[in-house]
Design goal:
The protein contains two helices and seven strands. By secondary structure, it is an alpha+beta fold.
Length: 114
């Protein structure tokens, strides 16, 4: 079963333009109450090891719980809904603090904060 904040490996498919594509580590951002119902589609934010310091990205340093091998940035501007069947492996979990930062940036991008 997936958990919010899980770092997963999945194939995002062939990209168009500047969108994230191909095989990527990504962070699952779907609410846990939704994940508990085992949805067929989940929301993910791709990770990149290219740190650009964009305001739309959240830096995540590698540690044992998240399973990352190098510093990465969660590309919140590339929020995607993907089939749960695309997920090949769970590497770890980013934890509550990083997940909260990612969700806050997504809220800004989607103009959900007033």
């Amino acid at each position: 079963m997936l958990n919010s904040g899980d770092v997963v490996e999945l194939d995002l498919g062939l990209p168009s333009g500047r969108e994230a594509g191909f095989r990527h580590s990504s962070v699952v951002v779907t609410a846990q109450r939704i994940l508990d119902a085992r949805p067929s589609v989940v929301h993910v934010v791709p990770l990149t090891s290219t740190i650009r310091r964009f305001g739309s990205e959240v830096r995540i340093d590698p540690d044992a719980p998240n399973g990352l091998e190098r510093p990465s940035a969660a590309q919140c501007q590339h929020l995607r809904a993907v089939s749960a069947g695309r997920i090949e492996q769970v590497r770890g979990n980013v934890g509550v603090q990083a997940l909260s930062q990612i969700r806050e940036v997504i809220s800004v991008i989607l103009d959900l904060i007033r």
